[in-house]
Write a structure and sequence with these properties.
With 385 residues, the chain is of the alpha/beta class. It has 2 domains: 261 residues, TIM Barrel (Alpha-Beta Barrel), CATH 3.20.20.105; 77 residues, no CATH class. The strands form 2 sheets. Strands 1-8-7-6-5-4-3-2 form an 8-stranded parallel β-sheet. Strands 9-10 form a two-stranded antiparallel sheet. Strand 7, helix 11 and strand 8 form a beta-alpha-beta unit. The longest helix is centred in the middle third of the chain and has 21 residues. It is globular and about 60 Å long. It starts with 13 loop residues before the first strand and ends in a 14-residue tail after the last helix. It binds zinc ion. The site of zinc ion has 5 residues, from helix 13.
Length: 385
Amino acid sequence: MNSSVGFENGLWRLIPKNHFVSMSFFREEPLINWGYTESVLFTAYDVCRSSDFWIDSVIRSGKTLKEAMTDLGFPKKTSMMADTGVFEMEAKKAGIARSLGIDVDIALTNEEIFEAYRLSGADYFVSPDEIIQPTESSEEMNKKIEVIKHNFTDLLDEFPARKIVAVIQGTNRSTITMIFDFYRSHGIRHFAIGGLIPLWRHDKELFKKTLNYVRKITKGNWLHAFGLPILRLLPFYLHKVGVDSIDTSMLLYLSARRRYVVGFEIVPVRLVDFASCECVACSVLSPKLHPRRYDFFMNLYIQNIVEAAKYSENPELARKKKVIAKESQITGRRRQTDHRVESKTPRCHPRLGRLLKRRFRRTQDINMTNQVRVSTQTDANSEPM
Ligand SMILES: [Zn+2]
């Protein structure tokens, strides 16, 4: 782990997405007393898609989301990283909705993102980025880089550099170096690499080279990786490449699909001998408990989080396999994605929408996402990886 960067409420290896705004069970026991990891990820998108009454009461109280969570029992020392959730939205746009010919209107403006960030009271804030696809032309890439830079400088007006996680995009050395130098010139010490899932799908070699190059140039700084396409990449990211942290909501979705994580394998629950695991959650799980019951899901989720967190710290432990049926080797290799495609169109929370409108009138803020214009061109394609 990179020890050169560290603050109070610092970041940790595995940063699970905590959907506490849109999913009420994250605000209830046992998850509210979050003791499974020292950092969680929260998304602005989670605020906007939530229609939960809880957020109204938080806004009325004048507290931040983290303060309101702490009142409920969430550990104050657990750091919260706020992200836009843009990848989740992109996945939806590219998923069911698009195949049905539905235009999904779920773009978030910077102002909406920053409003959610301010409301969050988080410890770290991810700069809104644009996913650069490996197949894009240099012209498209340049446009996105300009938007990324504008987003970053806007965020810097809101939060100090030490609280910002700046996202590096690009698939060639000159683009990556240029973006990194730009961030460094603004005093950034926390970096993230984005666009990994499309890159991994496109070209595995380029994916590895890009990751290694970004790690190399960011040496001495914190490096977070956005997106875990398959669970088996966790040791690769953390221990081969030497990335400092990674976020995922995969463990939640796996649990909802009744999948059990053992080491870096994924196994259907019907093949698992729960008694072979000593964790608190597995002592509750038993073949007698119906797998569709809520307490089964909850304990499975906790077991999966605890398991993945443990191996994120020490991958050697994962080699000591527990008692699992033979089919797990086959099932475990099934590719798992880091997101779930939903057909439901999310809407921004009405209360937040009204709050934003008031602020818009007051500050005459501009929707930067749509109005940023490319002013300069960057030589984005000059040097391959
Ligand atoms: Zn267990």
